[in-house]
Specification:
By secondary structure, the chain is α+β, with helices and mostly antiparallel strands. It has two domains: about 60 residues, 2-Layer Sandwich (Alpha-Beta Plaits); about 130 residues, no CATH class. It contains eight helices and four strands, in the order βαββαβαααααα. α3 crosses α6 and α4 crosses α6. It starts with a strand and ends in a 5-residue tail after the last helix. About 40% of the residues are buried.
C-alpha cells in the first residue's frame, strides 16, 4: 500500500472546515485512512500523491504548507484571501438581514416614528449583529450541537461586524441623506460592507487562524 502523505493546511477555523477537507479527500480516487486535525492544521491520507491531495485542499480555498503558518504573516496567501472572503460574505449576509430590514421597516411601515437617522442606524446595527449571529448558529448546527453552535457564533469578531455595519450605514447616509433604501444605494452599501472588514478578516485568519464567524 502507498505510504501516507501529509501536509499543513491554513485557513481551517472550525469543525465545518475539517468536514469540508475530509469530504474533498474522501472523494479522491484511491484515498484511504484520511486524517484531518484542526488544532495542528495537519492532514494525511493514503492512496494518493501529495500533489493530488494538496490540489483538492487548495480548490476549497485553503492554503498549504508554510504559506499559512502563523509566524510568517504576509498579504500574499491566495488561499487565506479566498477563505476570508467566504467568511466575510456570510457575515455580510447575516448582518444585512437585520440592518436592511430595520431600515426598510422605518422607511415603508413605521414612517411617522419620529426617530432620528442616528437612532435608526444604531438600531439597524444592533439588529444586524443579532441576525448575523443567528444565521451563523443555524449554519454551524450542521456540525455542532446548538450550545456549541451558539457559543461559536457569539465568538465572532465584533470588530469585523461593527466595521461592516458602520460602512454600510455611512454609505447609505452619504448617498441618500438619511436612513433610506434605494436601488442605487443598496449595491454600494453591500460593496462597502464587504470590502471594509475583508483585510481585517484576512489578517485575523492568517495571523491567528481565527475567522470572523
Amino acid at each position: 500500500m502507498q505510504d501516507a502523505v501529509s501536509t499543513t493546511i491554513s485557513g481551517m477555523t472550525c469543525m465545518s472546515c475539517v468536514g469540508k477537507v475530509e469530504d474533498a479527500l474522501t472523494s479522491l480516487e484511491g484515498a484511504s485512512n484520511i486524517s484531518v486535525d484542526l488544532s495542528s492544521g495537519k492532514a494525511s491520507v493514503q492512496g494518493v500523491t501529495r500533489d493530488v491531495m494538496e490540489q483538492a485542499i487548495i480548490s476549497l480555498g485553503y492554503g498549504i504548507g508554510n504559506e499559512g503558518t502563523k509566524s510568517e504573516f504576509n498579504w500574499k496567501d491566495r488561499g487565506v484571501w479566498k477563505q476570508s472572503a467566504h467568511n466575510t460574505k456570510w457575515c455580510l449576509i447575516g448582518c444585512s438581514i437585520g440592518d436592511l430590514g430595520t431600515i426598510a421597516y422605518f422607511q415603508f411601515i413605521w414612517t411617522d416614528s419620529g426617530w432620528s437617522t442616528m437612532a435608526i442606524m444604531m438600531l439597524a446595527i444592533m439588529n444586524g449583529l443579532m441576525t448575523s449571529i443567528a444565521l451563523e448558529t443555524v449554519i454551524l448546527l450542521k456540525q455542532l450541537p446548538f450550545k456549541d453552535s451558539l457559543r461559536t457564533a457569539m465568538g465572532m469578531s465584533f470588530i469585523s461586524m461593527i466595521s461592516m455595519e458602520a460602512a454600510m450605514n455611512l454609505t447609505d447616509v452619504l448617498l441618500t441623506g438619511g436612513a433610506m433604501l434605494t436601488p442605487y444605494a443598496i449595491p454600494p452599501m453591500l460593496i462597502a460592507g464587504f470590502l471594509t472588514p475583508w483585510p481585517y478578516n484576512y489578517w485575523r485568519l492568517k495571523k491567528y487562524g481565527v475567522s470572523c464567524h
